Amino acid sequence: MKVMIVKRDFLKVSVVTFLVVMSLFVVELTNADEELPKNVILLIGDGMGPYHVKLTRLCLGTELAMEAMDETGPSYMTTYSLDPKDRITHKITDSAAAGTAIATGYKTYNHAVSVDFDGNDLETVLERAEAVGKATGLITDVFVEDATPAAFASHVEDRGMYEEIASEMASSGVDVLMGAGRGYFLPKGKGSHGGQRKDGRNLIEEMKKMGYVYVDSAEELEKVEINLNEGEKLLGLFGGFSAMTYDVDRQNDETINEPTLLEMTIKAIEVLSQDEDGFFLMVEGGAIDWVSHDRDVAAIVAEMEAFDAAVEYAWNWAMDNGNTLVVVTADHECGGLQLTSDSVGNEPPTGVPISENLDVDFIMGITASIEYMWGKIKDGADIRATVLTYTGYALTDEEIKSIKDAGKKGQMIISDILSEKAGVLWGFTGTDDGDHTFLPVPIYAYGPMAEAFDYVTDNTEFGQQLFIAVSGYWH
C-alpha cells in the first residue's frame, strides 16, 4: 500500500478557512513512493521545547539520539488549542488538548480528553491501530491517567475525571499499559494498598480476569514473560499514586524498585513485537513537563537524558528489525526555557556547542530535584545546609530571607536562584509556577513515512499522519 502524505500551506489560509478545511477534510495530497510501516513507535517528551533539547546537548556534551536519528533535522509544529466558546481563538494548550490533537487529529478545548467541543468521542490512533489488528501499548513515567496517555485510550470532557479515565483504560483493550497511578485502579482504603476510587471497583483484579499480568516493581517487570498470542497482556503500575521517582532522585533512595522509562520501553517492545500484524506504542516522558513547571534545570537534563535513552533503544530496534516508524515530538513547551546567545557560544569541529555562560559542571553536579530538597526543608531541614548538600551552592543570607518570605512558594525562589547560577533563563520567574507557552515543538522521525513528518506544521496534521501510518488512511 502506498502512502498519501497530507500537506497544507497554513500561511495561505485564515483560521476560519482552516477549520472549514479540517471539517471537510479537503486536503492537498502528494504521493510518496514508500510503503506503510508495520510498527509505529511514538515518543512524546511532555513539555519538551527546542531549548530543552539544546540544554541537554550542552550539558551532556554530545548530540542526542533523537537528533542523530533524523537525517534531515527536526521539523516544528504548532500546539495551540481553541477557545470553547468561539472555537476559533487560539489558546495556549494544556496537555489534554495537545494530546487529543496528536491522538485524534482534531483541535479541541483545554482539559478535553479525546472529545470534541460538543463532548462527542473522537477516534484515537490507538483505537485505529486496534481496529486494523495491531497490538497497542501506552507507557509513561507519570500516572497513566494523566492527560497525555489518557488522550490515546479514553474519552472524557475533563482531564480531572481520573476514575473514569482509569475505567476506560481498563476496558480499552490496550495490550501494554505501564506507569504510575495505581490509586485510581483501586478502591478507597487505608494503608499502602488503599486506593482512590469512590465506586469500590478494583480495576487491577478486573484486568487480571481479562488476561492481564500485573507487576508493580522493576524486578517483577524484568522477570515477567508475556505470551501475547495466548491472550496475555501486561499491566505495570509502579511508584506512588501520581508519579514515579524523578531520575535525578533515584540515587538518594536505595529502596527505589521502579523501572526506568528505558526498561519499560524495552519490555513493551518485547511484548508488542510478538504480533505479526505489527504494533503501535506511545512512550511518554511525562516528568519532563513536571520538572519544567518547577523550573528545575538539573532535573530537566536528567529526565531528558532518560527520555532520550528510550528514543535510542526504539531507534536501534527499528534499524535492526526494519519496517518501523519512530517519531519523537512534544505536546507543548513548558516554562519558556531560554538560553542566551552567550550560552551557546561557537560550534567546534565536533558540532557540539561550547558553553560560555552556561555552568555545565554546576548543573551536572546537582544530585537531587528541587522538589526533593523542598520536601526535606518542609520537614524541618535547614535551608542552607540542604541546598549546599545537594547542589554545592551556599545560599546567601539575602537569598535565604527571600525563600522564607515566599512561604509555600519558596521552592520556586530556590529554582530561580539555581537557574541564575546555572546561566539559564525562564519565561516565568518569581513565585509563579512555570507554565506552558506558544513555542513550537520539534519533530524527529526515522523509518518508513518519516518524510511525511517533514511537512507537519500543526499538531492536528501530525495526528492525521499517525492515522495514515497505522492504517493507510485518514477519515
Could you walk me through the main structural features you see in this protein, from its secondary elements to its overall organization?
The protein has 19 helices and 15 strands. Mean pLDDT is 90; it is low at 1-33 and 342-355. The chain is an alpha/beta fold and 475 residues long. Helix 11 packs antiparallel against helix 12. The longest helix is centred in the middle third of the chain and has 25 residues, at 297-321. The protein has helices at residues 15-24, 50-60, 65-69, 95-104, 125-131, 147-153, 162-170, 203-209, 218-223, 261-272, 287-293, 297-321, 341-344, 360-365, 370-378, 383-391, 397-405, 410-422, 459-471, and strands at 2-7, 28-35, 39-45, 75-77, 81-82, 90-91, 135-143, 176-180, 212-215, 233-237, 279-285, 324-329, 333-334, 436-437, 441-446. It starts with a strand and ends with a helix. The protein is globular.
